[in-house]
Automatic annotation (TrEMBL), chain A:
InterPro entries: FA_desaturase_dom, Fatty_acid_desaturase. Residues 74-340 form the Fatty acid desaturase domain. It comes from the Bacteria. This is Linoleoyl-CoA desaturase. GO terms for biological process: lipid biosynthetic process. GO terms for molecular function: oxidoreductase activity, acting on paired donors, with oxidation of a pair of donors resulting in the reduction of molecular oxygen to two molecules of water. One of its GO terms (cellular component) is membrane.
From TrEMBL, chain B:
This is Ferredoxin-NADP reductase. Residues 263-357 form the 2Fe-2S ferredoxin-type domain. It comes from Klenkia brasiliensis. Signal peptide: none annotated. Residues 38-141 form the FAD-binding FR-type domain. Its cofactor is FAD. The keyword Transferase does not apply. Keywords: 2Fe-2S, FAD, Flavoprotein, Iron, Iron-sulfur, Metal-binding, Oxidoreductase. GO terms for molecular function: 2 iron, 2 sulfur cluster binding; metal ion binding; oxidoreductase activity. SUPFAM superfamilies: 2Fe-2S ferredoxin-like (SSF54292), Ferredoxin reductase-like, C-terminal NADP-linked domain (SSF52343), Riboflavin synthase domain-like (SSF63380).
Amino acid sequence: MTALQKKSDNPVAHLSAADVEEIGRRLDAIRQEVVDSRGADDAAYIRKVIDVQRKLELASRAVLLLSKFPPAWIIGTAGLSVAKILENMEIGHNILHGQWDWMRDPKIHSTTWEWDMASPAEQWKHSHNELHHTYTNVIGKDNDLGYGIMRVDEDQKWIPLYLAQPLWNFVNACFFEYGIAAYDLELGKNLATEERRNDPKFKAAAKQVLKKIRKQATKDYLVHPALSGPSFVPTLAANFVANLVRNLWSHSVIMCGHFPEGVETYEKTSIDGETRGEWYLRQMLGSANISGSKAMHVMTGNLSHQVEHHLFPDLPSNRYAEIAPKVKAIFDEYGLRYHTASLPKQVASAWHKVFRLSLPNGWMAATTPANAPKQVAQLYKLTTGGPKVRRAYDRAQRAQAEQALAA
Amino acid sequence: MTSTGLGLRDRVTRLVEAATTPLLPRDYLDLFAPLRSGADLRGKVVAKRHETADAVTVVIRPGRGWREHVPGQYIRIGVDVDGVRQWRAYSVTSDRAATDGTISICVKAIPDGKVSNHVVRELRPGTVIQLDQATGEFTLPAQRPAKALFVTAGSGITPVMGMLRNHLDELPDAVLVHSAPTAQDVVFGDELRALAASGRLRLVERHTERDGFLKPAELAELVPDLHERTTWACGPAGLLESLEEHWAAEGIADQLLIEQFRPRVLVTGEGGAVTYNKTGTTVESDGATPILDAAEEAGLIMPSGCRMGICYGCVLPLREGAVRDIRNGELTVAAPGDGVLVQTCISAAAGACDIDH
């Protein structure tokens, strides 16, 4: 994908400024309808989910006390995996967004909640709620675009290191919670210079993360295994697997939100003086939904309604499904693409992008079985050659694109 | 503390906490035993009884952490109305001797009263509600007065009912002057009349539809030995003010104790933007709305207490700005660094404010 402003077929070119503001007003009205009708049913919903999650976790951990028996290991691990997914997705993520603050229950509130995750709630709220949700898909501002370790847009300059990004992405998926913690700390940037490393603010934040990780690891890899006595090792393995399953699942869901092919990105300068309507428009085109059953929506924390979530991050997650048709109607009326597909399709699409952009622009599209040897030779040159070689390649690519456009 | 200094109990607590992190053991225990000892104080509604058309007695079984109340005191209850937690104060009316560990409050539905209407019409037995320990100074002294007078109107009877049910036999001479629209509107009417019939209480009922609002001058006629009595009064702000003036004019202000449930709003300021530095939230608030209410309306979790300016449970430092006391219009101004403590429940913004919360 190329930043929307550079595209030849700009998908919003047909909209007038008045259209954009009207879209904003209509979306505001949808939001207000939900705000006005939030009530006892919604409160009962989140309390029920929390109740089910906690009982499932307790039951699974109880079963795992006997995890040296294979059936107990399987049941306990499956239950704990689901419990951890629910806790992070439908409960933690959404409470930390302030979706339930309106209930004024101090026990279910964004300011008091802490979650089963390496990253402390406070740090995650800053990097996620303040940065990602404000600067969604703006290249250079939204670090969620590739998490600072991957190339997810044509406009990011290609370097040979990116050849390994499918591997990075897989490793990141397996240890996603630690990836998020490192990301919230802006570890790459903050470890780069002596001055940043010694910044007391960074040091305090890093200490906070390490403390959280220590407590989390002690729970899953020491206390519960020890309580299992003779089942120490199987329980340790079960907890590891449950964390792995949760990590892989949440990574997949989150990749589907912004990475699938066709989701728009934006240039840094394009958001200067952005109006409310323009902000909404950016969220509309910068997010992708996952279609599926009700259970699937719950397990994704309703991030399957990523479009609705990005338009209204603080509305209760159980209401996204109900407003989705109204939101889609606005897309249809204004000739915009409402990006939705099944989970396997979106995951495949996101991974396709990760592979495609691990290679220089245009390389994958231009490669056929017939020209493969030639293409590989070129890739070898681009990889081992210096920046000059790569710049020449980029120029040739651009010239080709312009020619194609002119024709 | 070193690990050798830890008792067995502390070690077990630490172990269980290590097993439940990032939650606390009580987060799990609350699923099964919300009323257990050590839990946040809660209560279960066990019964509801209509006293009049629009007033109900709610019988509550408080959690194990409940400390006994002194008759005349009030409790705060937190109930979820349309999914939103709301806290209100109500007097405890139950007889301590006759109950099986339950307590009662009496709630009268007031027009547009979010909580009172919910309690009277919606609240179902079996519901678990949030509670606070009983508090309040509107009680009888240990040395019971030889002559007591109670002046109440409407639901103002509730704290007095708590005292009468528990201590009437310890009061050799008690008079109750109660004002309500009609005889049917008298909360606890039958019970009060029975007490009067038994000769233990002198009851003067005033029905405003027939007699008009109670005036202190009339009171002097109804109770000629007013000067000799210690008086407890509870009711609408207007009545209490007129009583205070009368007692002060008679030079017996020290013989009057009053209780009110809502602050009297005298002055409205000009309002302003209130910023909460720790949450980074700014709430536009008008000059008549307590900043506590405005903040809660905006979804903030605020410390709160009586909501009438007496318990100081809601106090927060005002870092900078001006607030006005909605009861008397008194202005409090803070310059940077002052951190003046203000009661958010009776303070409205009088310009931009920066609150440390």
